[in-house]
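Worked example 2:
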Amino acid sequence: EPEVLQLLRTTKEALYLGVEKCVEGNRVGDIGHAIQTHVEKNGFSVVREMCGHGVGIKLHEDPNICNYGRPGTGPLLKAGMVIAIEPMVNMGDRNVVFMPDGWTCKTRDGLPSAHYENTVVITDGDPIILTL
């Protein structure tokens, strides 16, 4: 279906637009804003109940990396930080429901959703993607 292919393409593009913002001195809100702006410009919606995160000793650490936000807000990105950027994009509205198993998540309206993810190292230059 062309709409599903556009959903996938938009989500992947949003991932890399978020990665471009993974620069020392930027803030977490810069990443989320880049993702959200691209997604919504293409007629899709961003899931807000789940987000990317810091990666360190434990898999899920602070800071949370939301897929929405305002530029210049949130924690400062510093060289050496490792974060997971994870756009989750719905074809319909942004609402999701969690199943009783505590793991499975579905769109409330039953329309398709897409998710891409990379783990990125913040440096004093270009970001380094660890998960290509």
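The beta strands are 45-46, 52-54, 61-65, 82-85, 88-90, 96-98, 105-107, 113-115, 118-121, 128-129. The longest helix spans residues 2-20.
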